[in-house]
């Protein structure tokens, strides 16, 4: 399998622009300050869901519900009968439900309150074929590895696992999601596709540009070397693993 993200995006470009104009962006989250995946990332995952007809999706790290919002919209637009199971210890269910309801999407999302360590295996007991898992909760190496191993058992061949905050870290030790990708995944398991700068530039949304500035400034203030490589690009924070 060889995935060309730009070719997939081209198929849905008109609809993606329309969704952004309708307020499905980070600025559309009431009281939004920071966090969650970017609009360009959400729209790329939306496109993958439609392209591959992914129906049953797990969202680890509900947060303000932005990713679940876009996943639900993809199911609706593609007329897929599926469900998004979100996982978080303290989800803002009222906020997320309000966002979903405004677009007629509330029936596509179910909330699970708890740690992904326990909830992911429990979802595996449901009689479903899982197509996609987004890992965007605890970004430590240890927890990301556990989440990946649990997710890998759940998703069907051809399905995918999405990682966020995959910026390169110092090579002296493993501390984050990118290190899990490098240490655990090999080509026999499937293909990893990184969201390169061209994906960000394909959209270049203002809210995403502001987030790049915020992230870049944070890296400078905290100091490179100890936790992020100086060559890291704040426009490149996501990767998708497609299971063979």
Describe what this molecule looks like in 3D:
The protein is of the alpha/beta class and 244 residues long. The protein has one domain (5-243): Vaccinia Virus protein VP39 (Rossmann fold), CATH 3.40.50.150. It is 43% helix and 18% strand. It is built from nine helices and seven strands, in the order H-H-E-H-E-H-E-H-E-H-E-H-E-H-H-E. The protein has helices spanning 5-21, 39-52, 66-77, 93-101, 116-123, 141-154, 177-184, 197-203, 206-222; strands at 56-60, 83-88, 109-113, 130-135, 155-164, 190-194, 238-243. The protein has a seven-stranded mixed sheet, with helices on both faces. Strand 1 (56-60), helix 3 and strand 2 (83-88) form a beta-alpha-beta unit. Helix 1 crosses helix 2 and helix 2 (39-52) packs parallel to helix 3 (66-77). The mean pLDDT is 93.
Summed up:
With 244 residues, the chain is α/β, with parallel strands linked by helices. The chain has helices spanning 5-21, 39-52, 66-77, 93-101, 116-123, 141-154, 177-184, 197-203, 206-222, and strands at 56-60, 83-88, 109-113, 130-135, 155-164, 190-194, 238-243.
């Amino acid at each position: 399998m060889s995935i060309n993200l730009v070719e997939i995006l081209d198929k849905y470009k008109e609809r993606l622009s329309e969704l952004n104009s309708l307020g499905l962006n980070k600025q559309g989250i009431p009281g939004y300050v920071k966090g969650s995946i970017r609009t360009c990332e959400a729209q790329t995952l939306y496109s993958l869901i439609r392209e591959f007809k992914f129906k049953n999706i797990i969202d680890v790290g509900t947060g303000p519900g932005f990713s679940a919002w876009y996943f639900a919209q993809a199911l609706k637009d593609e007329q897929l009968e599926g469900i998004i199971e979100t996982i978080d210890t303290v989800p803002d269910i009222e906020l997320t439900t309000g966002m979903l309801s405004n677009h007629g999407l509330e029936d596509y999302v179910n909330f699970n309150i708890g740690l992904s360590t326990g909830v992911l295996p429990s979802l595996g007991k449901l009689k479903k074929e899982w197509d996609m898992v987004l890992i965007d909760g605890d970004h430590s190496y240890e927890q990301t590895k556990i989440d990946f191993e649990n997710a890998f058992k759940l998703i069907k061949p051809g399905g995918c696992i999405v990682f966020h905050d995959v910026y390169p870290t110092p090579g002296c030790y493993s501390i984050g999601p990118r290190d899990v990708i490098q240490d655990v995944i090999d080509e026999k398991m499937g293909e990893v596709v990184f969201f390169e700068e061209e994906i960000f530039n394909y959209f270049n949304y203002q809210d995403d540009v502001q987030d790049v500035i915020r992230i870049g400034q944070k890296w400078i203030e905290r100091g490179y070397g100890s936790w992020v490589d100086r060559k890291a690009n704040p426009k490149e924070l996501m990767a998708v693993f497609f299971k063979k």
